[in-house]
Amino acid sequence: MITPRFNCSQTDQSLIISIYCPSVRAADVEIHVDDKLVSVHINPYFLRLNFSYPLLEDDASTAKYDPSSGYLTVTLTKENPGQVFDDLDLLAKLLAPRPVVQHPVIEVVSESSNPSEIPDEEGELVSRTEALSLEREREEILRAAENDWQLPQEVSEPQISLTLQKHYGFLNMHSGYFRLVTHTENEVNELGAEAEIYSAAERRQTRLKHENEKWDEEHYMADYADDEYIRELLMWKHPHTDRSEPFQYTDEENAVILRLPRKEYLPTSAQTHNLYLTLLTILFSYAYESRTNQCDPTPESAWTLSTLVPAFSALDPPDSLLVPLVDPLRFETNELCQTFVTSYRRSFAFPLYRSFILAEACQADVARILSGGQRTVTRCLLEMKAILDHHEVYYVYSKIWLDDFCVWVQAFASEHVLVTLGKQVSNLKISKSSIGWRLEVLEAATREVEERDSDSDDDDSEDASSSDDSSALLR
Question: Where do the DSSP E strands lie in 21-133?
């Protein structure tokens, strides 16, 4: 079945769905309304939408088809007139499957816990099991009494994996994308042929080693000394941070959203927490690429975007430093700093412009993008996706990360958490010492050389002036 293009609007009394389905028979339209779920079927199109509030299919509801324009307009009555339906422009959220109610997986066979009420054979088995359990407990207590009441402790054996295959990507849902990586021109992949079998610890170790190998002190010092162009880049303002006009997705963006996968994600609390941290690194990469090229992508843009995200180049997304994790939607300053330190390091080790003040500007861009909420973040992710999708090698990072992230941000991420996170990032201060590459020492050495050269030029100028005066006196 084909998912048609559509858009939604509302009045105080009704919700209006406009569906583009040209060259169909209006008599074949089937519309079903079940509380918040609306299904529209007209061969070969099928549309199922989940709204925030319930709707009614009553006498005031209508469905009109215009053969000239190809649009089917469905008008449904709101169960609560005057209620405002939010997020009608978040198509991925409307298309997301209805959450599945988890039913208990334990079946209660009998409510009785008295062995005398159970048949003889079963009752005897239960009695023996209880007696054995009590005997084991008694032996443990006796051993503890002999050992100053210290109960025995055993270290659990790690689970043995029967396969070398490891999963990666969004919620570790993907595998197999890098089996033939040695036969492709993937200059981003830092794991080589071991991308499919490295554990999370091995990926991080490899990433850190590669960053240290690529770090070039002379390149950083040169950009620090000659930063005229970098300072011009700092004056640029990202167009997506302009809030003067109301936000509206373009037709092209809506078409891409309609082609995104429709999944229901069931992340753990820790996974939800880590998704927000990973989003920060992705947006930092986007901010760097946008600022250095001023939203005009180049043939190198796909490489830059992929290289700056550790979850792409090394399959190593950030993880929480909080153990145990009490609130998955609460972020401590130290873990946010650690997340941005990784992005800062990569911006100093790989791309063309390597500057601390440029990295700070990119962090500020991330804060402003987050303050725009789900819509602005999704727009930025869609732009990244468009660049990677058109690359013959790096499209893989769009498949294992960005497709799912676009859906998750629109349908499942919290607007309040994104905005709050933006405020935290705005107030975040990354120290140069936390980078680990002697940035302050290198900058001080660069300034000292510049001052020495300046003094030398002044001395040469004075010597030349004195020589001129002497020649005049001799004449």
Answer: 30-34, 37-42, 45-50, 55-56, 62-66, 71-78
